Amino acid sequence: MTLYTKIRAAAFAAGIGLAAIAAPALADEQHFPLQSYRVGPYAAGGTGFFGGFIDYLNLINTRDGGVNGVKLTWSEAETQYEVERGVEAYERLKSNQGIAAWNPLSVGIAYAMIDRITQDKVPLITINHGRTDSTDGRVFPYVFPLLLNPYSETSGIVNYIASKEGGLESLKGKKIVVLYHGSPYGKETIPIYELLAEKYGFELQQIEVPHPGNEQQSQWLTIRRAKPDYVVLRGWGVMNPVALKTAAKTGFPVDHIIGNVWSNSEEDVIPAGDAAKGYTAITTQASGAEYPVVKEIVKTVYDAGKGNLEDKNRIGSVYHNLGIVNGILNVEAVRIAQEKFGKRTLTGDEVRWGFEHLQLDPARVEALGAKDLFHSINVTWDNHEGNGYVTFQQWDGKKWNVVSDWIAPDWALLRPIIEKSSEAYAAEKGIKLRTAEDAEAATN
Amino acid sequence: MAEFDWLFFTEVLIGGLLSGVMYSLVAIGFVLIYKTSGVLNFSQGALLLFAALTFVSLVEKGVPFAAAFAITFAAMVVIGVAIERTVLRPLTNKPPITLFMATLGLSYIIEGAAQLIWGTQVHGLDLGIEDIPFDVGGVFISQFDIFAAVVAASMVGALSAFFRYTRIGLGFRAVADDQFAALAVGLKLPWIWASVWAAAGLVALVAGLLWGARLGVQFSLSLVVLKALPVLVLGGFDSILGAIVGGLLVGASEKLAEVYIGDYFGGGIEGWFAYVVALAFLLIRPSGLFGQKLVERV
User: Fold this and answer.
1) Between residues A330 and B186, which one has the greater pLDDT?
2) Residue A276 domain flag
3) Domain assignment present for A2
4) What is the reported pTM?
5) Contact A48, A317 (CB under 8 A)
6) Of the four, A12, A57, A310, B157, which is 20 to 30 A from B88 by CA?
7) Which long-range contacts (CB under 8 A, 24 or more apart) does A38-41 make?
8) pLDDT tens-place string over residues A396-412
């Protein structure tokens, strides 16, 4: 060994030693990679939802020092709601340590990630959206359409219309038009509406609006000619205010339009102005800033200058509250998983176990400061939706007002349909159906 | 056999024609730029978004309507001049595809800048025009659409008069006909280009306000360019009259197609039907209905 080599080896060894001394012990952290969209056509929804999610994570860190001492961290990558960017963001962010779950808030990005996250064994959360049959945890162990899948949403809307008409039997002979966005998201509920129409005897017409939906004259003239009793608006983005404005323009009464869960935000009604007054839409979470958890976020996060929303007027808006509820569900899944696996950084598979035991009854929801913000959730290893309840809110020109009790979709009716679809998917992909025993084991 | 419902047909047709006027408003902005510089300005949609977003943000901050309009127009002039100085002038004599790509890049920059300055929130825009339909013999006609049609007609009239009777307008036409000849007689090309970009900015502002009142002022406004492209193919890229006629044809045909043959294709066809019409027309008459036929010696 030459002198030069010795010096170099010594320097290298010293370097390692110094690095070992200098580097802090790896802190217990749980990471949330966020494929957010803060610019582009759907930025209003993205900033609200991801803002609420981050605000809640911030609240847990600031108020509680994390979940049992495990700090929550997150990183963001912009997707502009585009699938290819979402996948690219996934590839970029997946190298983060201690990933708890993915929350892309995009049907397209979620679809593109299913095989990847299944291989990585990390949960994919598609709150209020996603593919309906991913509710079946036997086939989709890592996908969680929490609170509301599209079929439950459909059932909830039909049940609400029935309640206005005097019961499900009163639907016979009624006419319902579904105006849907011309995308996989919009078309997801076509078969279930057909099935419910057949079951309850109402006449059904489903009309597509081409993306992005900024022209709907012909669709609404067709609706006017059809003279339906109700129109269900299954829109997204600009399609929603244009639908409400065009309905007014063609003389269709706004109080007979029922919006779906992606047609229920302030961004959908404010641009429509007076045309939106009286419009009703389904939701899984109420809007407003009067709930204790939202007040705590204001006090602990915003008053400390750490709030994520630029415009404080949006605190308590539909998307912001959805983000907060999503934060609660993610954090509680981690907390539940920690009870079993230890108060440390968990693997994705361990967090999956946490989601599969995410049972928050109304008392626990109240303890979390979210009473009346959302109802409850009861996720199991084979039911990844968790039987979320829905409510309906009406726009008065300034704010949403809740106009119904919490309504349960017809889960018993929907489950066999979901299983039929998921089993077909499993057969196509050669997936072996998981059992309760399989689900109990988690990789660490 | 059920009797054909002529009343409904008339309603769809009128609705389509009035929608077509809205497309024309966007198309006119393209025509102005193309007429004088031969550039297909893809950033027209982004300019429209920027104008509407600036206007509505000023109004929401308490600036009176007229002042907000004037400030926004001034901003559009500044942007127009800046584009001419920093993008078009350095690219003079470059192939048309280079200029087109430059405007494509510009559209992303303007969209990004608009959201950076004014945020991503969706805004409502009330121009004070009631959008309650009135009944004409059983046919519902939108008051707002009639208002938009009147604005479009006034704008076409004003622009036509401007091109025909004013010194600057004649300068525009001279540049449109032959840039080298215009230079030879002493016309200042950069100044004319900057002026025409400012005029396109005004068109973008008016179109942005009308479309913004219809859709809400939000990012999707920039997507209305997709409605203008088939209009330009039909009417011709360099004819204001063509933009109007093209808009009417596109509006009426897509609405009638959606209602009467949409079901055969599973519905939702109006998004692409206009392009089918434009493509078919392109094969028959490449320069459009009113476009200038170019003959080149080789």
Assistant:
1) A330
2) yes
3) no
4) 0.87
5) yes
6) B157
7) A38/A78, A38/B120, A39/A78, A39/A80, A39/B112, A39/B115, A39/B120, A39/B219, A40/A80, A40/A81, A40/A82, A40/B219, A41/A80, A41/A81, A41/A212, A41/A237, A41/A238, A41/B218, A41/B219, A41/B220, A41/B223
8) 999 999 999 999 999 99
What is the reported pLDDT for A169?
A: 96
β-pair type (A400-402, A391-395): antiparallel
Residue A368 shares a structural domain with residue A403: no
Residue B268 three-state SS: coil
The dihedrals phi and psi of A390, each to the nearest 5 degrees, come to -120, 160
What are the extents of the domains in chain B?
18-222
Q: Which of B222, B227, B258 to mutate to test the interface with A (most CBs of A within 10 A)?
A: B258
Quick one: A370 and A234 in the same domain? no
Round to whole Å and give the CA distance between A76 and A272.
32
Share of chain A above pLDDT 90, in %: 86
Q: Range of A252's domain?
A: 151-283+394-409
pLDDT of residue B2: 66
What is the pLDDT averaged over residues B165-187? 83
Among B97, B130, B110, B116, CA closest to B48: B110
E strands, A66-149, are 71-78, 124-125, 143-144
Residues B48-73 pLDDT 10s: 999 999 999 999 999 999 999 999 99
Question: What's the pLDDT band for B135 if we cut at 50, 70, 90?
Answer: confident
Backbone phi, psi, residue A203, to 5°: -80, 140
Residues A90 and A175 in one domain: no
Domain identity same for A87 and A158? no
Q: Which of A214, A279, A314, A318 to mutate to test the interface with B (most CBs of B within 10 A)?
A: A214
Does the pLDDT at position A181 exceed 60?
Answer: yes
Average pLDDT of the residues of chain B: 88
Cβ atoms within 10 Å, residue B226: 16
Query: A359 and A322: one domain?
Result: yes
Number of alpha carbons in the 13 Å side-chain half-sphere of residue A27: 13
CA distance B25 to chain A (A): 15
Question: Would you place residue B290 in the very low, low, confident or very high pLDDT band (cuts 50, 70, 90)?
Answer: confident
pLDDT score recorded for residue A16 = 40
Distances A138 to A143, A440, A444 between C-alpha atoms, Å: 11, 12, 21
* B136 part of contact set with chain A, CB < 8 Å: no
Task: Give the CATH number, domain containing residue A160.
Answer: 3.40.50.2300
**H or E, element range at A50:** helix A43-64
Query: Using CB atoms, which residue from A47, A212, A267 is nearest to B223?
Result: A212
- Mean pLDDT score of chain A: 92
Contact by Cβ (8 Å): A148, A173:
no
Structure tokens at B146: 């009639």
Regarding predicted confidence, which is higher, A208 or B188?
Answer: A208
To test the contact with chain B by mutation, choose from A50, A79, A221, A242 the residue with the greatest count of B C-beta atoms within 10 A, namely: A221
CA pair distance A387, A360, nearest whole angstrom? 11
- The whole-angstrom distance between residue B279's C-alpha and the CA centroid of its chain comes to 19
**DSSP symbol at A234:** E
Query: Would strands B139-142 and B133-136 be described as parallel, antiparallel, or unpaired?
Result: antiparallel
Count structural domains, chain A.
Answer: 2
Residue numbers of A between 122 and 151 with CB closer than 8 Å to B: none
Q: Are residues A65 and A86 in the same domain?
A: yes
A163 and A196 share a domain? yes
Are A435 and A292 part of one and the same domain?
yes
Query: Which residue in the block uniquely carries the two structure tokens 């540049």?
Result: B175
Search chain B and give the residue with CA nearest A47. Answer: B120
Instruction: Give the C-alpha separation, A136 to B247, whole Å.
Output: 49
Q: Is residue A5 part of a domain?
A: no
Q: Chain B 263-282, CB below 8 Å of chain A: which residues? A: 266-272
Residue keyed to tokens 């006034």? B154
Interacting residues of A329 by C-beta distance below 8 A, sequence separation 6+: A125, A127, A146, A147, A358, A360, A377
